[in-house]
From TrEMBL, chain A:
Residues 79-111, 125-157, 173-205 are annotated as: Disordered. Its EC number is 2.3.1.-. GO terms for molecular function: acyltransferase activity. Its cofactor is (R)-lipoate. Residues 181-197 have a biased composition (Low complexity). It holds the Pfam family Biotin_lipoyl. This is Dihydrolipoamide acetyltransferase component of pyruvate dehydrogenase complex. PANTHER family: DIHYDROLIPOAMIDE ACETYLTRANSFERASE COMPONENT OF PYRUVATE DEHYDROGENASE COMPLEX, LIPOAMIDE ACYLTRANSFERASE COMPONENT OF BRANCHED-CHAIN ALPHA-KETO ACID DEHYDROGENASE COMPLEX, MITOCHONDRIAL. It comes from the Bacteria. Residues 4-79 form the Lipoyl-binding domain. Belongs to the 2-oxoacid dehydrogenase family. The keyword Transferase applies.
UniProtKB/TrEMBL annotation, chain B:
This is Pyruvate dehydrogenase (Acetyl-transferring) E1 component subunit alpha. It comes from the Bacteria. PANTHER family: 2-OXOISOVALERATE DEHYDROGENASE SUBUNIT ALPHA, MITOCHONDRIAL. Signal peptide: none annotated. Residues 56-329 form the Dehydrogenase E1 component domain. Keywords: Oxidoreductase, Pyruvate, Thiamine pyrophosphate. Its cofactor is thiamine diphosphate. NCBIfam families: PDH_E1_alph_x. The gene is pdhA. Pfam families: E1_dh. The keyword Oxidoreductase applies.
Length: 500, 379
């Protein structure tokens, strides 16, 4: 009566070994249907939604979002017949807490989350669990035994069949004369015979293992292989490399620090795989920084009047339901300044040898989210009324924070604002989102001593930073645009009346 | 210029295509191309409804297969999502004597040939070779190697000519399926050469779904694909591959030309792969969401539904019944896929030679003995 079924993470690509849980779309207690999307998982190949394999009630979720899970591990438990009353935990046959961590593993765990192969499920890199042959010693010929140091390998008692006197393998010793008489005849069929203790021919190792050895500076000939037919495995190389590292430290270490290995073994470094939004951001930023020649200009402006206008707007019935912030006025300033300087809102199209000037503004707003930086945009923002713009900005930011920004919101941006002021920063030199020609950094607004009408007064002051693509925008145009944004923020009412 | 062809607009590619049903479900009576050929269809209400049922069923089964892969029940799946009209339109245009050579994505054509939809699942689940009898159904086995089936099809078509089975309205024709990426393969171009030179009774049916895995069409060709046929000496034509009526009309005409001894035709069915290349692919890494949205508006099923509704050929009850029936078929398919038995290792010696061979028999015997040498039973 095992009506609680556990769903194990399947191999979603071909030969993948793990996946990262991005987000759960259901929670414990939810009633779900067959094929209802339950979880988003990102693998080395793709981010995909997994549909439920059974309908029922979710009784357990094994891993939080953000966890990297090995293929074959349970991720969710579903009670497929909840109407039958409460199910005891004993109904769960393979409860995740007691599950064999090796269960269902395809290939072996490999750095980067997959076994490096072209197609198919690839080679197993873990030691095979092979059944015993009838009439042979029960000791598994391939069972991994702790490998003694190379010099001690001679006549190792762990080797089940010693056909040839084992050569004493030394990194510098020429191998040929050590083996007195290469005896190839073996009492067992060669194909399945266990590893001979001594080598007579060339070193057996798979190409990736050879590369690893080369990268780690390990001499394959100095290693006693524990793999099939005495081949050298990845683990053998890694063990040998650790030996080398220990040796190395032993020689170079000075008297002050005895446990020197902790300094060099990387245990105090955190390695974060570059993927998802972080990877995309990195690619975009590198592409932009090394394609578009950036110029950044700064302007410090007195925004006291803007802050007053904001208070007035908040008091108006039109904005009774809408949250507004200084960002709204900066956005409005940018949109009006684009109208006065349309060339700023353009794209350099190298492939066609053209500058594409856009008649619409898809206004991007850089947002920090849990998954990283994204820049969703408000489509055709120039056509919106101030209240519509405010609502669009609120929706944009809320959606981004909840991680639900659809891809269509993140493409097609024409000009962007990055609000670094919310972090308490004065200004910055932003990098252009690819395809855009200008981005405005909006700094913190601070009470500052400022010359106002000939006297020093405390005023609300901020600094704007504008980066632009110098292929399209000359210093003059960039300066005029930034000055217009500043002029608006210094006196929005006058700017509105005189420009629109 | 013919109505329905070369109409400038975002929905229609430069150079135009044959379209009989617009994305809004407006019916265009007939299309006459520059070379004087006229394309139209004259379906009964029942036939229109049948086409709709095919499209919905084929999509629903495909969706189930994608889900099964995501649940770990299939090793891989190549979805046809978005290409239903190209496959059903051409598949229904085939006559019983015609022979088809598919890729690994032609689940819709397979369905139209009357083959049990479970058949390819052994292959994708990795429990058998995915085989059926190509002669029984006049549908070759799925071919994974890109473009290679066009050579098989060309050879088969030349055989049809040698058997004297062309040159009449009841003659035989051959259709070879492939994608836009395959047009860059040597095999496909060799097939074009041979078919052109030997006037083989073959229709080259290219589903241009815009991407060869991640490579966009502009990296495959500088001219529209259908225009390549001219260089090999036979006609090429482009059809709206999301329009089941136009695809049917164009394929039917090309097959009839072939069976009458008029030689090959290249059809470029202009369509879009709405999903991933296979379940191992992530299309969001190479194409943007806006493009996918634009193609969603050209969906093959919604336009036929709009037409049927407008013409009062079908009512809500019909659509509901079709959905429910497709759902039932999908769930039955799921049950059958899950019930597929795992193969015994010894079956790997099967199907090597049609009538066995002493060498293989000896190997099988040795393998059985070897397996029996382990403790415990089974494999």
């Amino acid at each position: 009566m095992s009506r609680i079924k556990e769903f194990n993470l399947p191999d979603l690509g071909e030969g993948l070994t793990e996946g990262e849980i991005l987000a759960w779309l259901v929670k414990v207690g939810d009633t779900i249907e067959l094929n209802q999307p339950i979880v988003e998982v990102e693998t080395a190949k793709a981010a995909v939604e997994i549909p439920a394999k059974w309908g029922g009630v979710v009784t357990r979720i094994f891993h939080e979002a953000g966890t990297v899970v090995e293929v074959g591990m349970p991720i969710i438990a579903i009670d497929t017949d909840p109407s039958a009353g409460p199910a005891g935990p004993s109904d769960t046959p393979g409860d995740g807490t007691s599950a064999d961590p090796e269960a269902g593993l395809i290939g072996g765990p490999a750095p980067g989350g997959r076994t490096a192969i072209l197609v198919g499920y690839g080679p197993k890199t873990t030691t095979a669990k092979r059944r015993a042959r009838i009439g042979t010693p029960s000791a598994s010929p391939t069972a991994a035994t702790p490998t003694p140091p190379p010099a001690a390998a001679a006549g190792s008692p762990a080797a089940p069949v010693a056909v040839v006197p084992a050569p004493v393998a030394q990194p510098v010793a020429p191998p040929a004369p050590v083996s007195p008489e290469p005896v190839l005849a073996s009492p067992e069929p060669a194909l399945l015979s266990p590893a001979p203790a001594g080598r007579t021919g060339p070193v057996l190792a798979k190409p990736p293992v050879r590369k690893l050895a080369r990268d780690l500076g390990v001499d394959l000939a100095a290693i006693t292989g524990t793999g099939p037919m005495g081949s050298v495995t990845r683990e053998d190389v890694q063990r040998a490399a650790e030996g080398l590292a220990a040796e190395g430290t032993a020689q170079t270490v000075t008297v002050e620090r005895t446990p020197a290995t902790t300094v060099l073994d990387g245990s105090r470094e955190q390695r974060i795989p570059v993927k998802g939004v972080r990877k995309l951001t990195a690619e975009n930023m590198v592409a932009s920084a090394f394609t578009a020649p950036h110029v950044t200009e700064f302007l410090t402006v007195d925004v006291t009047r803007s802050m007053k206008v904001l208070e007035k707007l908040k008091a108006r019935p039109e904005f009774a339901e809408t949250r507004i912030s200084p960002l709204l006025l900066v956005a409005k300033a940018v949109l009006l300044a684009v109208k006065r300087n349309p060339m700023v809102n353009s794209t350099w199209s190298g492939s066609t040898g053209e500058i594409v000037v856009k008649d619409y503004v898809n206004l991007g707003i850089a947002a920090a989210t849990q998954r990283g930086l994204i820049v969703p945009n408000v489509k055709d923002a120039g056509r919106l009324t101030l209240r519509e713009l405010a609502e669009a900005l609120n929706t944009l930011v809320l959606t981004a924070k909840s991680g639900k920004t659809p891809p269509s919101d993140m493409t097609g941006g024409t000009l962007s604002i990055t609000n670094v002021g919310v972090f308490g920063i004065d200004t910055g030199t932003p990098i252009l989102p690819p395809g855009e020609s200008a981005i405005l950094a909006f700094g913190a607004i601070r009470p500052t001593p400022w010359v106002h009408k000939g006297k020093i007064k405390v005023r609300q002051v901020t600094t704007l930073g504008l980066s632009f693509d110098h292929r399209i925008i000359d210093g003059e145009l960039g300066s005029r645009f930034l000055r217009d944004v500043g002029t608006f923020l210094e006196d929005p009412e006058a700017a509105m009346l005189s420009w629109t | 210029m013919a109505k329905g062809e070369s109409v400038p607009g975002s929905d229609i590619p430069a150079g135009g295509f044959v379209q009989l049903l617009t994305p809004d479900g407006e019916r265009i009576d007939s299309v006459t191309t520059a070379d004087g050929a006229t394309y139209s269809v004259d379906f009964t209400d029942e036939e229109y409804r049948g086409l709709y049922r095919d499209l919905v069923t084929v999509r629903r089964l495909d969706t189930e297969a994608t889900a099964l892969q995501r649940q770990g029940e299939l090793g891989i799946w190549a979805s046809l999502l978005g290409q239903e009209a190209a496959q059903v339109g051409s598949g229904r245009a085939l006559r019983s004597q015609d022979m088809a050579f598919p890729t690994y994505r032609e689940h819709g054509v397979l369905y139209c040939r009357g083959i049990d939809p479970i058949m390819p699942f052994g292959l994708f689940r990795g429990v058998d070779q995915g085989g059926w009898d190509p002669n029984e159904f006049k549908f070759n086995t799925y071919t994974i190697v890109i473009g290679s089936q066009t050579l098989h099809a060309t050879g088969y078509a030349m055989g049809v000519t040698m058997d004297g089975k062309t040159g009449s309205p009841d003659g035989e024709a051959v259709i070879a399926y492939f994608g836009d990426g395959a047009t860059s393969q040597g095999e496909v171009n060799e097939s074009f050469v041979w078919s052109g030179v030997f006037n083989a009774p073959i229709v080259f049916f290219c589903q241009n779904n815009q991407y060869a895995i991640s490579e966009p069409l502009e990296r495959q060709t500088r001219v529209p694909l259908y225009q390549r046929a001219g260089g090999y000496g036979f006609p090429g034509i482009r059809v709206d591959g999301n329009d089941v009526l136009a695809t049917y009309a164009v394929t039917r005409a090309a097959l009839d030309n072939a069976r009458n001894g008029q030689g090959p035709t290249l059809i470029e069915a202009y369509t879009y792969r709405m999903g991933a290349h296979t379940s191992s692919d992530d299309p969001t890494r190479y194409r943007n969401a806006g493009e996918v949205e634009a193609w969603k508006a050209k969906d093959p099923i919604s336009r036929l539904k709009a037409f049927l509704t407008k013409q009062k050929v079908a009512k809500k009850d019909f659509f509901t019944e079709v959905d429910e029936d497709a759902n039932k078929q999908a769930l039955a398919l799921r049950e059958r896929v899950l019930a597929m038995p795992d193969p015994q290792p010894v079956t790997l010696f099967d199907n090597v030679y049609p009538n066995g061979s002493p060498e293989i028999d000896a190997q099988r015997k040795a393998f059985i003995e070897y397996q029996a040498s382990f403790e415990g039973s089974g494999h």
